[in-house]
Amino acid sequence: MKIVLLGPPGSGKGTQANIICQKYNLPHISTGDIFRSNISQGTPLGKKVKEYIDSGSLVPDELTISIVEDRLRQDDCKDGFVLDGFPRVLSQAIALDKIVNLDKAIMIDLSDEEIVRRLSGRRMCKKCGNPTHIDWLKNGKCEKCGGEVYVRDDDKEETVKARLAKQKLPQEVIDFYIKKGIYAKVSALDTKEKTFEKVDSILREIKK
C-alpha cells in the first residue's frame, strides 16, 4: 500500500499515520523527520537543508523532492509506505507522481474552527508537565496533579490561525488526486479510533 495522508495541522493526520503503520507494518515517512534525519547524519542533502532552515528560508521544491525520492527508494518502502506532510503544492504532487504510483491520497478532514478549538485549548501543567486540554481540566487545574496550567505560545489562538493559513493545502493538489481517481476524504471529527475505522475501510478496499 502506497498512501499519502493529506490534512491541515491539528487534524490528527500524524496520529492516523502511526496507527496505519502499526497495523499494516508500513514505514511512516514524514518530510520533517526526513529533514531532521539528514541534518543529524550530516548528509550532503542534510547540509543543504540546514542552510535554508538556519537562514529562515523555505526549503526549495527541488531539494524537498530529491530527499523524498531518496527515502522512497530505500528497501523498507518496497512493499508500501505512508507519506505524511508531502506533497504540499501541485509541483510536488506532479513530481511524486513520476516517482511512484500511489494507491490512495486520503484527506483527514477537519474544519478550521474545530482545529482552532482543539489546538488553542491545549494546556501544559506547570507542576508535572502533563499536556492537557481545557475540556479535561478539573476546576481549571491539571486533572492529574491539580497544578496550575499555562498556554504555550504555539497554542495561542492567533498563532494557530496563522499556521493554518500558511499551511493550507491548495485546492489544485486535491483536484490533481481527484482527477487521478485516488482521492478520499475522511472526517476527523470523531475520536481517533472511530476516524481510523473509516480510514481502514478505505485501506481494506486497496488490499482486496
Please describe what this structure looks like.
- The structure is a single chain.
- The protein is an alpha/beta fold.
- It has a domain at 2-26 and 79-110 and 169-207: P-loop containing nucleotide triphosphate hydrolases (Rossmann fold).
- It has 9 helices and 8 strands.
- It has helices at residues 13-24, 31-41, 44-54, 61-72, 90-99, 112-120, 157-166, 171-180, 192-207; strands at 2-6, 28-30, 81-84, 104-109, 122-125, 131-133, 149-150, 183-187.
- A 5-stranded parallel beta sheet has the order 2-3-1-4-8.
Characteristic key phrases:
208 residues, 49% helix, Rossmann fold, single chain, 9 helices, globular, alpha/beta, 8 strands, three-stranded antiparallel beta sheet
Q: Numbering strands along the chain, what is their spatial order in the largest sheet?
A: 2-3-1-4-8
- CATH superfamily of the domain at 2-26 and 79-110 and 169-207, called what? P-loop containing nucleotide triphosphate hydrolases
Radius of gyration: 19 Å
What does the largest sheet look like?
5 strands, parallel
Query: Spans with pLDDT under 50 lasting ≥5 residues?
Result: none
Discrete helix count: 9
Helicity range:
40-55%
Distance between the termini: 11 Å
| Name given to the CATH architecture of the domain at 2-26 and 79-110 and 169-207 | 3-Layer(aba) Sandwich
CATH topology of the domain at 2-26 and 79-110 and 169-207: Rossmann fold
Mean of residue pLDDT? 92
* Element-by-element helix/strand order: EHEHHHEHEHEEEHHEH
Approximate strand percentage: 15-25%
Please state the structural category. alpha/beta
Overall outline: globular
CATH top-level class of the domain at 2-26 and 79-110 and 169-207? Alpha Beta
Task: Tell me how many strands there are.
Answer: 8
